[in-house]
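Session log. Operator J.P. requested a structure for one protein chain; no other inputs attached. Running the standard single-chain path with token output.
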Amino acid sequence: VQLQASGGGSVQAGGSLRLSCAASERGFSMFAMGWFRQAPGKEREFVATITSSGGSTYVADSVKGRFTISRDNAKNTLYLQMNSLKPEDTAVYYCGTRTSTTGSSRAWEYAYWGQGTQVTVSS
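Structure written below.
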């Protein structure tokens, strides 16, 4: 499975960005997916996860109320809508896919990863 993340960029605090993650496989709809981020000098951090059907989502407390994860299985694409961005959201954002239908906040439970897209939020 190949994942291609895009949509990152530089924004001012309070701005918005929408990240996309396109999957190469037709079986995309079978698996749960998630977004993680990694800031310089820090470990990879869970952001959000979604079940294979898209019927259930879970987001980290640090982004709750600001970020929304969604997916379009017809387009083999995962999204992360990020609103009210803060400087502490600055990181490289990675999408990942599991080999299970249920979501997870644990990075080691993801089998495939995209290459990452940089998000920079200035104050």
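Operator note: The CA atoms of residues 24 and 114 lie 11 Å apart.
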